[in-house]
Amino acid sequence: MSAVIWLAIAGGAVAPGLMAFGLFVWADAWTHSPLALNAFKCALGSFLFGVVVLIFYRRPMPERAVLWLAFSSLLGIVIADTLWLAALQILGARRMIAIDALKPFVAVAFGYALLGDVVPWLGYLGVVVCALGVYLLNMESAEADDAGKRDADDAVMAVDRAVAVADVAVDDAAAGSLWKAYAYATVNVILDVYAATITVAEHGPLSSAEVNLLRFGLAAVLLALIWAGREGHRQEKTKAMPPRAWGRVSLGVVFVTFLVPLITVWTLFVLPLAVAVTLWSLTPLWALPVSYYFGQRVSRRALAGAAFAAGGVVMLAVAVT
Questions:
Q1: 169 φ, ψ (degrees, to nearest 5)
Q2: Which of 276, 208, 243 has the alpha carbon at shortest distance from 45?
Q3: Res 209: pLDDT
Q4: Residue 155 pLDDT more than 60?
Q5: Distance (Å, rounded) from C-alpha 193 to C-alpha 199?
Q6: Across residues 299-308, what is the average pLDDT?
Q7: Please, is 31 exposed, middle or buried when counting C-beta atoms within 10 Å of its C-beta (0-12, 13-18, 19+)?
Q8: Are 26 and 253 in contact (CB under 8 A)?
Q9: Higher pLDDT, 23 or 158
Q10: Average pLDDT estimate for 131-139
Q11: Cβ proximity of 254 and 38 under 8 Å
């Protein structure tokens, strides 16, 4: 069992790197609405999960699990992800990453209150240390972004796009839009963690692939219907996406909506909720090698943030094993 736990910790720590890579791949390639993007990624993701289930799992699914996972899908994918994408377009990815850093603390509360998770004190300390490390890394990313805008340096801007994971913020957004975006981002955090809590409590005997097929499959159907009702009849003003852009987005979805959920949902079945969700927040840690690759100097504060984040992961690993 200890080997399985260590594997889950390793998978949970690597998944944010896959997420960062996938978002970097599709970057600014998508030119349509956030709702259309959410529908597309759910449709492609559910198709890939369907292939896996068809090959490896052919069994009836318990009705109770299906109903609860459908509810989880509605909260965590249809509503929360749409809010996340809408907020992303206003706030930008670096602000969204900072807000997403609240998820471990929400997971501590939900895990204790709803699942009865009790993590040793070292584990809770690891959550705090990881969050501090992610905060320092986000501060570094923010300063790099500001410096890039002042200098108009193409190389630095490329680094910032990689570190910020396709930052599409509108800097001159109205105050009302900003407050609405922050509200969207906060609700996303709560719904996302609550959906994960439901998944842990009600998945029954189903595997990660089966859980994701149910959640993303239902989400794809609902989002397609919503898109058809709200936007399908409109004539879009955006440019048509060339085949290369579709290829970039599709490759990004393979990482973001297939590989990452396949790993992270499995970690939910093995690790306490707070530990699993904390590992999901390590995306800024994976930004450091990307920054270095693009030639950006890695500061002492960034290294300190990386050290705190890595140290927090070690504390979590020791606590749960």
A1: -65, 145
A2: 208
A3: 95
A4: no
A5: 10
A6: 84
A7: middle
A8: yes
A9: 23
A10: 79
A11: no
* Encoded amino acid at 90, one letter: I
What pLDDT sits at residue 294? 61
Among the listed residues 107, 65, 29, 39, the one whose alpha carbon sits nearest the alpha carbon of residue 210? 65
Whole-number mean pLDDT of the chain?
A: 81
Q: What is the pLDDT of residue 207?
A: 94
Nearest-angstrom CA–CA distance, 273 and 62: 23
Burial-class residue 288 by CB neighbours within 10 Å (0-12, 13-18, 19+): buried
The structure's pTM equals: 0.79
Q: Which residues have a Cβ under 8 Å from the Cβ of 313 and sit 6 or more positions away? A: 9, 13, 126, 130, 279, 282
Residue 261: burial class (beta carbons within 10 Å; 0-12, 13-18, 19+)? buried
| Mean local confidence (pLDDT), 275-282 | 87
Task: Please check whether residue 143 is in contact with residue 92, taking contact to mean a CB–CB distance below 8 angstroms.
Answer: no
